[in-house]
Amino acid sequence: MKGLLTIVLLVLSNTFMVIAWYGHLKFAEWKWFNKLGLIAIVLISWFIALFEYAFQVPANKIGFKGNGGPFSLIQLKLLQEVITLVVFAIFTLIFFKTETFRTNHIIAFVFLVLAVYFMFKK
Question: Around Cβ 10, how many Cβ atoms within 10 Å?
């Protein structure tokens, strides 16, 4: 149960992270947003990132073996990175229609999934 909860929290965290880091590139299409200066955009991104941390910190606390969770620190980090890439890929395909994934992107993703497999292999 702790493992599944950790993964759900990481997905939520990474969703907010991707929006905070890359959302402003899409939001620039809105006239009112495009008029904002860099400082305002950074502040908006920080506000969004607050929700990222609100999910990320509990995910790590619940999921870490040292706190009774199922994952080592290294496993947590690698899991988080793969979730980040999956969330980023979905975000990109939905919101940035001009971006395309090429074969080398897919191969790189397969290697990351293999990295997770080997990280969890005993």
Answer: 25
